[in-house]
Amino acid sequence: MEALGKHLLLELIDCDAGLLNDIEYLRKVVFDTARQIGATAIKDSFYQFTPQGVSGVLIIAESHISIHTWPEYSFAAVDVFTCGDVIDPKNAIKPFVEKLKAASSSYIEMKRGTGNVVREAVSWK
User: Fold this and answer.
1) Which regions of the chain are under pLDDT 50?
2) Phi and psi (nearest 5°) for 51?
3) What is d(CA 43, CA 55) in angstroms, rounded to the nearest whole number?
4) What's phi and psi for 116, nearest 5 deg?
């Protein structure tokens, strides 16, 4: 069976903590990155935690993009799931790294529907 989609699990390390706690900035980052990779935004939901941290999801026609932040650790976890072969979720790595000012990053990519997991470490210093 061919893959039904690709699911990227991205870890962003040593990010700008202030950006990770700015819900409107994070919403813009997620929408801008979706647009940049060619995804079609459908609906979003973002939540600001107290005392800090943000979780958000953008439903895209191709599946979803989500982000969860821990400003106190300068860490963000991002998922980019795209169905089909039109959009490569790995194209979202560089924009997220740059926009959140991550010192480093790593990711795992899963090909959904096949059980085939690809592991790669990526550093964007």
Assistant:
1) 124
2) -90, -10
3) 15
4) -90, 115
- Known catalytic membership, residue 64: no
3 state SS of 125: coil
E-state strands within 14-115: 41-48, 54-60, 63-70, 75-83, 104-112
- Distances from the Cα of 17 to the Cα of 4, 22, 51, 67, angstroms: 35, 9, 13, 14
- The predicted pLDDT at position 73 comes to 98
Q: Which of 64, 74, 83, 105 is catalytic?
A: 83
| Domains and their CATH numbers in the chain | 5-120 (3.60.90.10)
Catalytic residue among 15, 63, 74, 105: 63
- Taking Cα atoms as reference points, which of 74, 70, 54 lies closest to residue 13? 74
Supply the pTM of this predicted model.
0.90
Task: Quote the longest CA-to-CA distance of the chain.
Answer: 46
